[in-house]
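Hey, I'm writing a tutorial for new members on how sequence and structure tokens pair up, and I'd like a real worked example in the thread rather than a made-up one. If someone can provide the structure for the chain below, I'll link this post from the tutorial.
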Amino acid sequence: MGPIEKKWRDGISRRKAFQSLAGFLTASPLLRGQQDPYREHSRVPSMDELLTTFDFEPIAYAKLPAEIYHYTAHGDGSEYTVRRNREAFDWVKLVPRAMVDVSSVDASTEVLGTKMKFPLMLAPSAQHGALHPEGEVATHRGASAAGSPMILSYPAAFRVEETIKAGDGPMWFQVYPRETVEDNLPLLEEVQTLGYKAIAITIDQVASYYERSLHVRQLGRRGRGRPPGATETNAYGISFGRIWYHWEFFEKIRPYVKVPLLAKGIVTAADAKMCLDHGVDGIIVSNHGGRSMDYGAATLEVLPEIVDAVQGRIPVLIDSGFRRGTDVLKALALGAKAVCVGRVPRWGLAAFGDAGVTRILEIVQAELALAMAHTGRPNLASIDRTLVRTNFPWARK
């Protein structure tokens, strides 16, 4: 082989030259086609790179169909209540206590017979199967690994038996009640037999109208003048499945519920007192994450009046808008016994399955422990209202 032939054999071909040039161009950060207009970069980060719960949401967004993502994200109407739930945390400031031994922080507690490492539970939410193939089974497995109890929502992708067997952590059950007591009994008997430790009856979400999802499904052109589900006899599309609710239901169902019975959806002191009058064992202060009614109050701002109304006779839990450990600490200082998170574990599930659920709960737990240490509160018994200063708009002069 002569020198010319050898040079040809070892030299770069035209095809390889074009391949190298194309690789150089497509790798350039200046090439607009390589950029994702909705995120800072196109690469999906690994779970170890995510530092807060907020970091999980864009990954869930990237992995889910638009309609499924917005089902988790939407609120009622203009979504004012969704925004107010988050804004309310800015109206509560933490007050540190100096010279306190916080070398050991203990956040363990017990609520209605359920022991937990942290006062943090998974709020009931529907359709986990749309977020991950293993749905609520994966969610419970992830919650168990983090030591957080889970409240299973009645509209679930897996049977109640499959879900509770998936993990070793305690589970509660949430019910949308049916009008006749008899229609509720088979399900209530089944979950109690399986070992669900409490029953939460949801009494809110009567007026939900999800404009965001209507637009996503290109149904917004129907307009507010004639909502979905409207008929000649029901012009405003009111859900008849919920407008029958009455307080006597708790008294009728009580003989068939042998575990603690809670009312979920309380946002006023008056309704909290009604819970006491009708034999409810616990309250979950909730506006359904801003999905129950537009232009409602944030749950954090109504929490103190509800705690004051029950006077410690029954535990008060809270959900709606919680994202950080400091959020949890503020609610505990205002009298909540525990906090339930709904959207946060859904982001973890959609992003990384059960491992994402575990990791996102561990982040909130670690943030809570750190916030307790920074404010000089070594245990839950040391947390009271002296820990916070509130500046809710309605209280300003």
